[in-house]
Amino acid sequence: MNTSKAIIKLLEDEGVKHIFGHPGEQILPLYQSLNNSKIKHILTRHEQGAVHASDAYARVSGRFGVCIATAGPGALNLVMGVATAYKDSIPMLVITGDNPKNLKEKNSFQSIDIVSIFKPIVIKSFNPYNGKLAIANIKEALDILEKKPHGPVHINLSKDVLLDENLGKVISREFTFSHNYSYDNLDEAIGLLKKSERPLIVVGAGIRWGRATQEFENFINVNKIPITTTYHSNGIISEKNQLNLGMIGIRGTTLANYALNHSDLILILGSKLSDRTIDFKKSHYNDSFLKNYKSSKTKIIHINIDKSSFKGDIRIEGDVKFVLSKLNHLNKITSSNSKDWLDEIYKNDKKIDIDGMNSNQIALKPQIAIDEILKSSKGLHVVNDAGSHTTWVNLLIKSDIPGKLVFSGGMAPMGYGLPASCGVSIAKNGENVILINGDGGFQMNIQELATVKVNNLPILIFVLNNYQLGVIRQWEKLLSDDLRYEVDLENPDFVTIANAYGIDGEKVKTKNDLKLAIDKGLKLKKPYLVEVIVDEEDIPLPESLNK
To answer: Is residue 357 part of a domain?
Structure first.
């Protein structure tokens, strides 16, 4: 047995069911072993498509994703997607092929220092020089992804290492990753929770990765503490539950941001607290929080397995499931009057009046189209690309299932949506998936329509076409009303392109036609593209959120 076969066996034993990738010369030994495996390989048309699909597959399945690329250009094409997963703490095994060692040392064709390029965007990178070390590295990588899943792990495998048969007795999974967490300051955290009169929980995706959803639900049901979510924890409990105030931060709800500004204690569970969530330096949307925090009126308890993300007063590096289990043993902790606190929050709600907008005008407004699409998304995952439409999706969506909205919040690359929807669809094994894309972002990975078609993925693809890079156009207006440079697009007919890939579709311009297209697309149980002609964008930019 060579290294390639041993790696595939380890992945099979780990329960890996799908791998996303694109073959190339130096990674072919691994593909040869994969060909005889129970693992299904999903061939994407570009390596960036493979890594975005793997990323979204992980977000929805709750297991780490796996993607493969070959040496040189193949590995470099993964960089954007790996950085996206790193920024959002998505666990993923990234496998790259490489030239044999004797060629790498001579700076040969397609040789480049892949490990140095990947190091800043992964939590660990391996570059084994023989088969024995490669197997040990894979075992360590799998343990990290299972036991401390807060980002991608990379392994670079030279062709000669993949073919190495001198493995010894290293096939069984005896390596055990361990981490000694300290919970010494948990009692201090409990003390603050008991004293708090206006507590708030900010919950991140660490709850899901830590498999602590049930413990979390038990905790809030007993203590009645309002919660807010990040991009990646949406729907952790239904947003029909009054305790769920929705998403916090720069694109968050007025409920969530009011609660942040007026709480006296914030419990952070499994979130990195990016600047889009809470900005500790400057903010257009939580000035009151900053003033209260600086004056010590607001305390922060931060629990995370990644200590590099810590902010706040009490920092607990550890397993969020363990902490919640400890708290649940104490039954009700808080002494606050949760009803009064919730009533105050809801009195300060400012809802978006979509119904009051003129939906009968000649040009369909993007927010009206998006609201109509989201009304039909009950029980379905919605994948969102980056662009001007992103704001309206974030503001209008109501999550009724865990992780309903799949979106890259930290890096937010255009072109994420289409390959990500492939990953979601494969993870959900035949369920309908809704993709909302802008005309600019859609063209960045449009080739993955082939992946959609070949795998007959039931993705309802919406391309909102306003013939421009909408959000960039708005930023231009802030610089100068006269500036209109390189934002207008001469777009193709997207329905015709979809047809060329063997995917049916239609073009709509009115709200009623959009309704009919949505109903038709969801009933088909196969890929369907709807090009929606919309007006120029008018999203609320960050500066205007407090107006």
So the answer is: no
Q: How far apart are CA 243 and CA 255, in angstroms?
A: 11
Cα–Cα distance, 48 to 54 (Å, whole number): 10
pLDDT tens digits for range 460-476: 999 999 867 667 666 66
Q: Which pair of structure tokens corresponds to residue 393?
A: 């999706």
Q: Are the C-beta atoms of residues 487 and 472 closer than 8 Å to each other?
A: yes
Rounded-to-integer distance, Cα 533 and Cα 508, Å: 6
Element housing 43 (H / E):
strand 40-43
Predicted confidence band at 179 (pLDDT cuts at 50, 70, 90)?
low
532 in a domain, yes or no? yes
* 286 in Cβ contact with 252 (< 8 Å): no
Q: What is the secondary structure of 412-465 as a DSSP string?
A: --TT-HHHHHHHHHHHTTS--EEEEEEHHHHTTSGGGHHHHHHTT--EEEEEEE
What contacts 343, CB < 8 A, 6 or more positions away? none
CATH of the domain at 294: 3.40.50.1220
Instruction: Please check whether residue 328 lies inside any domain of the structure.
Output: yes
Among 162, 177, 203, residue at a domain's last position: 162
Give the number of domains in the chain.
Answer: 3
Same domain, 229 and 92: no
Residue 544 has pLDDT above 50, yes or no: no
Measure the CA–CA gap between 532 and 386, rounded to whole angstroms. Answer: 17
Q: Are 402 and 350 in contact (CB under 8 A)?
A: no
174 is a domain residue:
no
Please tell me the predicted confidence (pLDDT) of residue 410.
75
Question: Which pLDDT tens digit goes with each residue over 432-444?
Answer: 999 999 988 899 9
Note the pLDDT of residue 311. 78
Q: pLDDT tens for residues 525-535?
A: 999 999 999 88
Smallest Cα–Cα separation from 531: which of 502, 499, 487, 488?
499
Question: In what helix (H) or strand (E) does residue 51 lie, and over which residues does it extend?
Answer: helix 47-61
Domain range for residue 126?
3-162
From CA 43, how far away is CA 243, in angstroms rounded? 42
| Co-location of 156 and 43 in the same domain | yes
- CATH number, domain at 373? 3.40.50.970
Q: How far apart are CA 56 and CA 48, in angstroms?
A: 12
- Please compute, for residue 159, the number of CA atoms within 13 A of its CA located in the half-sphere on the CB side: 18
**Higher local confidence (pLDDT), 169 or 95:** 95
Pairing of strands 65-69, 40-43: unpaired
For residue 282, pLDDT over 70 is answered with no
